[in-house]
Write a structure and sequence with these properties.
By secondary structure, the chain is mainly α. The protein has ten helices and two strands.
Length: about 200
């Protein structure tokens, strides 16, 4: 009955090893040569990045039990895009998460360029804009958007899958940083000391 939800979760988990290999730029270069190694890394980056992104969206929209909060649960609003009547409270709760998630995600992509975001190939350390607030703004944005969309759509399985997705994002972030230290050495280590990983400082 919940085949699509299970499939999307499994797909999100399955592409993580591909992502790990895609960011091993030095290893790929040593094994396959500069040009071929770069090409393999970029292909794996596209596949793992878009695979993870599409699977994540599938988690939100796949058939699953819907929940309602007891407060104002009778106040429904028709939202044409998702074709579901949504409790007004769910819209109010999800709006700040979706807004912040979009801000972190979009600005993160703009600052590193879409190509770098898609292929996971960092040419230089970015430490301005959102990258001066947090080291992985796109991943934080995705987690905020996940909570917002899960609540907006009253998607129960999606909501309770949040800890798993947080673990996957943390693993991906740690792997990326390990490879960035290999590539950029002290420059990236200094950046790590000054900017938090996934939780922005409040002051």
């Amino acid at each position: 009955m919940y085949f699509w939800f299970i499939f999307c979760i499994a797909a999100a988990v399955a592409v993580v090893p591909l992502h790990f290999v895609s960011v091993e730029h030095l290893t790929l270069r040593e094994r396959f040569g500069m040009k071929r190694g770069r090409g393999i890394g970029e292909i794996l980056g596209y596949v793992s990045g878009w695979g993870f992104f599409i699977s994540w969206i599938g988690i939100w929209f796949s058939p699953q039990p819907r929940f309602v909060t007891p407060l104002l649960h009778q106040s429904l609003v028709a939202v044409p895009v998702v074709m579901l009547p949504i409790p007004l409270l769910h819209i109010l709760v999800s709006a700040p998460f979706l807004t912040l998630g979009a801000w972190f995600g979009i600005n993160g992509v703009k600052e590193v360029t879409l190509r770098v975001a898609e292929t996971h190939r960092t040419e230089r350390i970015i430490s301005t804009g959102t990258y001066s607030i947090i080291r992985h703004p796109q991943y934080l944005g995705a987690l905020l958007a996940h909570f917002g969309m899960s609540f907006l759509l009253s998607a129960w399985f999606s909501l309770i899958s949040t800890p798993l997705l947080m673990i996957l994002v943390y693993m991906i972030s740690k792997k990326e940083e390990k490879e960035l230290v290999r590539e950029f050495g002290c420059e990236y280590e200094a950046y790590q000391k000054n900017v938090p990983m996934l939780t922005p400082r409040l002051c």
